[in-house]
């Protein structure tokens, strides 16, 4: 009896820069691991239709790509909200459409993979009784700081940028206060609260896919040593 082909549904948040890594990973899973992959691309009117269409077409021979119009969030967040905040809210408000699209797919999915803005869609995977995985396209350094931020929030008093000593991150080189990512620059900003919520949400995944290397010189990027890959590529 032939083994049933594993069906992986991959969810990409709006933006070609978010969609391309998902398409590349999906292509890798199909061509190197014989998996069936469906990519759900949440799109907005800000995306250039021509460039998006060309990108999707280039992967069409291996992947099934379904475009899902992003929900209108104009009444939910102010127009000057930070991009990360807009993306998190947009993905949350689009969950009903994502759920409907997945339920209409002929082949029942066995796994759901999403980027860092798709974490609230873990609820759909739980409804289907399938595992959900986080796909991180950033560096291991960012991932360590990002996922440890909720604990730092409890440990550190005051603004991070005002601290004199480096922030200790398990398994990571200590982070100087002036090296923190933008959402951590002002803990009183609403964007910081969104960042913390996102950091907590992504850790609720059943696993993480990350492809990275160990950097010895972050400024020059001239010396690096191969590091164990945490993804199937």
TrEMBL record:
Record bears the keyword Transferase: yes
Organism in which the protein naturally occurs: Helianthus annuus
Keywords associated with the record: Glycosyltransferase, Transferase
GO molecular function, one term: glycosyltransferase activity
Protein's recorded name: Putative UDP-glucuronosyl/UDP-glucosyltransferase
């Amino acid at each position: 009896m032939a083994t049933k082909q594993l069906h992986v549904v991959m969810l990409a948040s709006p933006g070609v820069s978010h969609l391309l890594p998902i398409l590349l990973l999906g292509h890798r899973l199909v061509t190197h691991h014989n998996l069936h992959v469906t990519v759900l691309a949440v799109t907005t009117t800000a995306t250039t239709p021509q460039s998006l269409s060309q990108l999707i077409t280039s992967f069409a021979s291996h992947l099934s790509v379904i475009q899902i119009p992003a929900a209108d969030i104009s009444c939910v967040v102010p127009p000057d909200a930070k991009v990360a905040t807009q993306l998190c809210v947009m993905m949350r408000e689009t969950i009903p459409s994502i759920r409907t699209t997945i339920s209409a797919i002929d082949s029942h999915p066995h796994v759901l993979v999403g980027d860092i803005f798709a974490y609230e869609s873990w609820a759909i995977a739980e409804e289907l009784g399938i595992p959900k995985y986080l796909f991180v396209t950033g560096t291991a350094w960012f991932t360590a700081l990002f996922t440890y931020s909720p604990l730092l929030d409890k440990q550190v008093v005051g603004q991070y940028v005002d601290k004199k000593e480096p922030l200790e991150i398990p398994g990571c080189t200590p982070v100087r206060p002036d090296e923190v990512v933008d959402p951590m620059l002002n803990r009183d900003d609403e964007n910081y609260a969104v960042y913390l919520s996102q950091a907590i949400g992504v850790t609720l995944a059943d696993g993480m896919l990350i492809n990275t290397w160990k950097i010895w010189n972050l400024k020059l990027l001239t010396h690096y040593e191969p590091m164990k890959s945490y993804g199937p590529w």
